[in-house]
Structure formats: structure tokens, C-alpha cells
Amino acid sequence: MRSRTGVAIAVMAALGLMPAAQAAGSAAPGTVATAGDPAPKSAGDFYKRAKAYAKAGQGDLATADLDRAIALDPAMGAAYYDRSALHFRKGDVDRAIADYTQTIKLLPDFPPAYRERGSALIAKREFKRAVADFDAAIKLKADYADAFDERGYAYRMLKDFDRAIADYSRALEINPKMTVTLMRRCWVRAVANRELDLALADCDAALKANAKDKEGYESRCFVHLRKGDTAKALKDCETALAMDGKMPKSLFLRGVLKQRGGDRKGGETDIAAAKVLDPQIAVKFADYGVSG
Predict the structure, then answer these.
(1) 11 band by pLDDT with thresholds 50, 70 and 90
(2) Is 26 inside any structural domain?
(3) Which of 28, 116, 125, 266 fits as disulfide partner to 6, beta carbons 3.0 to 4.6 Å?
(4) CA distances, 23 to each of 4, 30, 43, 188 (Å)
């Protein structure tokens, strides 16, 4: 049976939190079954086969083997961690949170468990609890760009725009290649109706890196609307909707833009379509000071 420390090292190495050579030198000794072995016996055997199943996209088989691994070794934190991710991918958020919580009990110094539980809490719209988990992850790993990015999103949903912008900025300082974070910072600046030139620069940079980012065009549409540039805003919303015609925010924004341009009927049609996709869309934008 692998020690708890050995399991933690193996998981950290797999996630790039520890160099492979260091992990190899530190891991507990012993062999485990390969994916082709017909009859795994130990917790490690089942865990190794579960990893192979998961890599092959066979989530249910992977989960079943992780169940067996945990039954044989209830202290195997890595098995709980991997199983939580499988639950989350299937949309079983409560089970995912339960397994992340058990992972944290067994591996309290493992930052990804806190970050990913925070992500699951965001899915349940429990933003304050999510922030606490991202705080814990960042405390353990001060350069954890993903944790800053996701905490920024949680702060945005809590309408703490200053902290959201600060967290997005810190994530980008750590990893300037996080173009999705650029788009998110652009959006939150537009929502807050501040630093619009910086917001525009964020969206421009995000779209330069990925010209197929439909949400980037949507965010830039909102920035242009805030700046009063109707033509540019309409062009960006049209581009976003050409990529995906079922984007409620883009539909709503285009509806508002059409109404401001004198096309009241066309605007009402877009806004009605947006409300079908998201019945709360008008309420959300009214909170931003934008109405159709």
C-alpha cells in the first residue's frame, strides 16, 4: 500500500506542481498493475487502471476502479481527487464536492483540491465559499494563476469589481498567455463601466490571440456600447452571433443597439430571443444600467 505522502507526491507531479525527477526520487517504492492486467488486486492496481480508463475517456469504468481503490485504501487521497473530477465532469457537483472535501482532509497541503472544490462551488453559485477555497489554494501556492482567475470570477459574481479586476490582473502577471482571463477582465470592466480604454485593450489582445473567441467579441461589443460607439458595438455582436446564434448576452446587446439606432421592431425581436435563452437577462443588464 502506498503511503499518503507517496500518493500526494504522485498527484502533484502529474499536475506539474513538482518536477518529475523529484517525484521519481521521492515516490514510495512498489509496482502497480498496467491497464492490460486482467485482475488488479491492490488499491494501487485499481488506481493505475482507473487512470488508464480515464485517459481513454471511459469515465464510468474509471470511477468504478476508483471506488474499489478507495474501498481497499480509504486513505488514498489521490483516488478521491481523481474521482471528484470524474463526478464534476458528469455534472454530479455534490458528489464532486464531497470527494474534494475528503481529498483535502487526506492531503491538506494540496492546492488543486481547494481550487477545484472552489470551481464546483461556483457551479452551485456559492461564491463566498468558493472564495474561501481559492484563498486556501493561493495561500499554499502563491503563484497559482488559475486560482486567481477563478477567484476573480467569484468576486465578479459577488459584484466586488475591484477585487475581481485585481485578481485577473494578478493571474495575468503570473501567466500573460491566459487570453481567456484578458477577455474576462475586459467584461468586468465593461460591467463596472470603468477603465473602458483598458477594457478595450484587453479585448483587442484576447482577440488577437484567438480570433475565434466568440465571448471576446461579445465583451468588446459591450465595451463599445459603453463608449457610445454603436457601429463598432453592433459589428462585434454580429460577429459573435455569427459564431453562435444562441448567445443571450449578445442577442440582448444587439437588441439594445438596434433600438438605439431606430430599429425598434428588430431590437424587440432580439431581446425577446435573448429572454427565451435566459429569462433573467433583462434583469442582469438592468443591474448594469443597460435596458432595452
Answers:
(1) very low
(2) yes
(3) 28
(4) 14, 14, 20, 40
Nearest to 250 by CA among 229, 228, 209, 278: 278
Within a domain: residue 119? no
Q: Are 248 and 281 in contact (CB under 8 A)?
A: yes
Question: What are 196-230's pLDDT values in tens digits?
Answer: 999 999 999 999 999 999 999 999 999 999 999 99
Q: What is the Cα–Cα distance from 27 to 49, expressed in whole angstroms?
A: 18
Secondary structure element (H or E) that encloses residue 25, with its range: helix 20-26
Tell which residue, 255, 242, 241, has the closest CA to residue 285. Answer: 255
The radius of gyration of the chain's CA atoms, rounded to the nearest angstrom, is 23
Q: Where does a domain end: 86, 109, 132?
A: 109
Please report where in the chains the cell 498493475 appears, as a residue. 33
Count of other CB atoms within 10 angstroms of residue 208:
11
